[in-house]
Amino acid sequence: MSVWKLNNSHVQYFKWLLGSESAVIDGVSKDATADLEAFNCDWMRKYRGHTKLVLRPRSTGEVSRIMKYCSDNMLAVVPQGGNTGLVGGSIPVFDEIVVSTARLNNIRSFDEVSGVLVADAGCILEVVDRHLAERSYTFPLDLGAKGSCHIGGNLATNAGGLRLLRYGSLHGNVLGIEAVLPNGTVVDELSTLRKNNTGYDLKQLFIGAEGTIGIITGVSILCPQRPKAVNVAYFGLENFEKARLAFREAKRHLSEVLSAFELMDGGSQDLVEKVTNNRPPLKGKYPFYCLIETSGSNKEHDDEKLGGYLEFVLNEHLISDGVLAQDETQVRSLWSWREGIPECLGHWGGVYKYDVSIPLPELYQLVDDTRARLSSVGLIGDDENFPVVGVVGYGHMGDSNLHLNVSTRGFDKEVEKQLEPFVYEWVQKRNGSISAEHGLGIAKKPFIGYSRSHKMLNMMKDIKNLYDPVRRAIPDGLSTVANVYNQNE
Ligand code: FAD
Ligand code: 2HG
Ligand code: ZN
Q: Is it the case that residue 259 has pLDDT exceeding 80?
């Protein structure tokens, strides 16, 4: 079995292949613990990796040669982008080699007529969006981690984000993919065509596959015009039912200009206030808040529509109070009360995250039921004797996607035992999804059966085995020989 262990001669090969010192972080022949730390630890500080080698290729050709070598030598690999994933999928939890896409960061082309962008997978989302902004376009995905996440990582997780309601999912916007299979084969499907019904649409397999069948190295994606007029409103509501009705009315009144409808409960906003010390947008306290955004090309038209909507929801007593951003600074400030939630919830040391799809009428019930459960066993309280700081819910109401977060004073087995499989069973009973947008990673791998049938799982395994046959030949439990980290077995 020692033949499968990473050794110095492997490292020497990679140094020769990638040429420069900075392309290989080598913890095999020397102590590089500090340099490896960022790759061995996730954003939540929940999962710990044990890699001793990080490779930072600069081209698709280099990725291909890395993968071929790893396949021939039965060395396990985990792709890593910006390492902002929330399910531990990018962490070498065994001792895999990390293939980082950080240096695959060129914007290859942008066509100002069609709006098609072609870029390396390691480009940072915000950098790409800035490039597009200069050309009056925008990326069809936006999320709180935009300053660090890579567009390849976005595709690999099929990230949803804040404007899926408006621009749809990456499955619709991605036109082409370049990827490297576990055996080193380059899949060159970087099409820029909008229409191409010639056989299977294989690129879709890589979107949301979390790196299990290959490493995405290039992306071709259709980008929409950047909206000229953006309005953001934030309001307080008495109960969840009113939020649901406010959403229904938003679709009715705002239709094509509605670009986001986000829900935040009072608990989440209180915790943001506590951590940031910022003054909340509204004077009063409410059990629920919504953030609504319109984007369009004609400010007067959008203002008129939004005005009509606000008048309606106020007259019907659907909302209790609200504020409308008057300028760009206020737009950003209102968004910070939504986008800042994930970071603030980790403030006390730990956070259990559940990212679920549930039919809208019951979307928030999961938060109340989870809070009641943790309360009944005495785990929630204000002082340090209680492990749980808060049980809150927020998320993409427009997509029926709830983020249930349980903020704790550290990761705690007793709390976890109360939450899992309770949350997954709860979601299964409502025919929901246990992973709406973050993927399975290491966190949800054991629970996939709550959302997928045996038949579907077997089809997934067939695909994995087809593209990563080396993995199939290896006895279970020997992570060092997984060719691309396998989350579906
Ligand atoms: P990583 O974390 O590096 O990797 C994620 C997974 O993809 C891993 O399994 C990894 O192995 C694989 N992978 C990475 N790159 C590649 C590649 N090139 N080829 C193949 N596999 C690859 N998600 C949402 O859906 N919506 C949100 O609104 C949202 N908001 C977030 C806000 C914050 C503050 C944070 C921290 C995260 C948020 N996320 C959200 C999680 C989301 O998954 C990531 O932010 C993002 O999509 C991951 O990109 P990344 O480059 O960081 O990928
Ligand atoms: C968001 O919508 C992200 O802010 C993160 O998907 C959600 O941290 C979470 O649970
Ligand atoms: Zn989200």
A: yes
With a 6 A CB cut-off, is 338 part of the ligand 2 pocket?
Answer: no
ipTM of the complex in this document: 0.99
Determine which residue's CA is closest to atom 25 belonging to ligand 1: 159
- Token pair for residue 437? 């947008």
Q: What is the pTM of this model?
A: 0.96
In 94-156, the DSSP E strands lie at 97-100, 107-111, 116-120
Expressed in angstroms and rounded, the spacing between residue 433 Cα and the centre of ligand 3 is 14
pLDDT band at 60 (very low <50, low <70, confident <90, very high): very high
- Please give the C-alpha separations between residue 279 and each of 160, 284, 340, 431, in angstroms, as whole numbers: 29, 11, 14, 39
| pLDDT for 143 beyond 60 | yes
Q: Residue 432 pLDDT more than 80?
A: yes
Q: Pull the structure tokens for residue 262.
A: 């986000």
b/e map of 280-296 (b: 16 or more CB within 10 Å)? Answer: bbbeeebbbbbbbbbbb
165: closest CA among 318, 322, 292? Answer: 292
Burial class (CB in 10 A: 0-12, 13-18, 19+), 385: exposed
Residues 6 or more apart from 422 whose CB is under 8 A from it?
370, 373
Atom of ligand 1 lying closest to residue 159 CA: 25
Spatial CA neighbour of 177 closest among 163, 193, 164, 161? 193
Expressed in angstroms and rounded, the spacing between residue 20 Cα and the centre of ligand 1 is 27
The pLDDT score that the predictor gives to residue 465 is 84
Nearest to 411 by CA among 67, 45, 35: 45
Distance CA 315, CA 369 (A): 32
Which ligand is nearest to the Cα of residue 102, counting in written order? 1
Q: Which ligand is nearest to the CA of 341?
A: 2
Domains (ranges, CATH) in the chain? 107-222 (3.30.465.10), 229-340 (3.30.70.2190), 346-450 (3.30.70.2740)
Parallel, antiparallel or unpaired: strands 97-100 and 107-111: unpaired
Q: What is the pLDDT of residues 11-35, one digit of tens each?
A: 999 999 999 878 999 999 999 999 9
Residue pLDDT, tens place only, 146-180 = 999 999 999 999 999 999 999 999 999 999 999 99
Alpha helices in 168-298 (DSSP H): 170-173, 203-206, 240-254, 266-276
